[in-house]
Design a protein that fits this description.
Elements lengths: L8 H12 L7 H10 L3 E2 L6 E3 L10 E7 L2 E8 L10 H22 L3 E2 L7 E6 L5 E7 L2 E7 L1 H17 L1
Antiparallel strand pairs: 1-2, 2-3, 3-4, 4-8, 5-6, 6-7, 7-8
């Protein structure tokens, strides 16, 4: 029997929207308040790192990206547990199915996502919201992760992508 788990869709959307619907720029203290309201536990060594209910053996499975004069840069967390090394094809299929369900739910909120460019991702979709926050859902089977970038980081990423297109 597999210990691999994914978050229920409604709960995953609530986790995501807790961040995307908040006013940006966001201070580190505001980010800590969101983290705490979601029941995530801060690391004792570094409070920007945290565990969620999907954490395996108490290992951190998310982080708040460092802040600068524009607030925090973003937040990353998982929507699946880290599988045991002996996990199998069934686990991979479970993660692919869950990823598809999450993507469909996010598309219902924000329309079609743009295919992403991740070096290790087997699938990635990205949205830039009206508040200029960007969100990516990433499947690196069997792991499913969320990256939420601040408007500042979204702008930097878009400028980089444009420069790379111009270079080609």
């Amino acid at each position: 029997m597999s210990d691999f788990r994914t978050l229920p869709i409604e709960e995953a959307i609530a986790w995501i929207q807790a961040w995307t619907d908040h006013a940006w720029p966001m201070s580190l203290q505001e980010a800590f308040a969101i983290r705490d309201s979601l029941g995530w536990m801060p690391s004792h060594q570094e409070p920007r790192y945290f565990t969620t209910k999907l954490s395996t053996n108490g290992k951190e499975d998310g982080m708040i990206l460092r802040s600068n004069e524009f607030g925090i840069k973003g937040v990353n967390f998982k929507l699946s547990t880290t599988p045991c090394p002996e996990e199998n094809e069934q686990t991979t299929q479970m993660s692919i199915t869950a990823y598809s369900q999450y993507a469909t739910a996010l598309e219902q909120l924000w329309g079609p996502g743009q295919p992403g460019k991740g070096p290790y991702a087997s699938s990635q979709l990205r949205w830039t919201l009206p508040n200029k926050v960007s969100i990516s859902i990433i499947l690196t089977a069997p792991l499913i992760g969320i990256d939420i970038d601040s408007p500042w980081r979204t702008k930097i990423s878009e400028e980089y992508d444009q420069a790379m297109e111009d270079y080609e």
